[in-house]
Write a structure and sequence with these properties.
Layout: E1 2-6, H1 11-22, E2 26-31, E3 45-48, H2 56-62, E4 67-70, H3 83-98, E5 102-106, H4 120-129, H5 131-146, E6 150-156, E7 158-160, E8 169-171, E9 181-183, H6 184-193, E10 203-208
Parallel strand pairs: 1-2, 1-4, 2-3, 4-5, 5-6, 6-10, 7-9
Antiparallel strand pairs: 8-10
Helix pairs in contact: 1-6, 3-5
Length: 209
């Protein structure tokens, strides 16, 4: 499959790119700073541009793709700067203009309706520390949900840099306790599995170890 990865310089994005290449997908990345990529695989097409501006670079990256996987985020920052709220319309509009329908979009556990069932202590921390980030994600998701795209929104719990295990749980609702975690490698594995899987089409899905 032809796969465009947005957010490819982040922790989860790097895992998606690496595993997609392992699976022999044709991978394109659109990044602002190509020098931040891992040593480039010759099979990966690297384009330079800003997702938020919705310009020709994004449309060129989207053109001809089978699926767009977005792992966009602000890293360790607690300030969103409206990244997702600005990116979501640009992505959706570029996909619509290029006739690409499949979007797999990474959010975070605790955003939107997933927050109501979060364990107590994580829910308190979300309110105290992550309010700006989560409001930004919610704004972007509202745009995606209203679009005509074939979207899946994925809500990982707290991310780690652990190995890919293939042993993780996914569901629209999961009974979780304490501080649940999942590795970025396992999240990437699940994201790529959704390229051909329509079970969570136009749905949100939580992933946890």
């Amino acid at each position: 499959m032809k796969v465009l990865v947005l957010g490819a310089t982040g922790g989860t994005g790097r895992e998606v790119v690496a595993q997609a290449a392992e699976q022999s997908h044709t991978v394109t990345v659109l990044v602002r700073h190509p020098e931040r990529l891992d040593s480039a695989d010759s099979k990966i097409r690297v384009l330079t541009g800003d997702v938020t501006d919705g310009g020709t670079a994004l449309k060129a990256a989207v053109a001809g793709q089978d699926v767009v996987i977005s792992t966009l985020g602000v890293g360790n920052s607690l300030k969103s700067n409206g990244l997702i709220a600005r990116s979501a319309p640009s992505i959706a509009n570029a996909m619509a203009s290029q006739g690409v329908r499949r979007l797999i979009f990474v959010s975070a556990y605790g955003v939107g309706s997933t927050r109501q069932n979060a364990p107590l202590l994580p829910r308190i921390l979300m309110g105290l520390l992550l309010g700006d980030l989560y409001r930004d994600k919610e704004a972007g998701e509202r745009y995606i949900v209203r679009s005509d795209l074939d979207w899946t929104i994925v809500y990982p719990v707290s991310l780690t840099n652990g190995p890919r295990t293939g042993q993780y749980r996914v569901a629209e609702c999961i009974d979780l306790h304490g501080f649940p975690r999942v590795s970025r490698a396992d999240v990437a594995h699940f994201l790529l599995s959704q390229i051909r899987d329509a079970h969570y089409l136009r749905k949100g899905v939580i992933i946890s170890s």
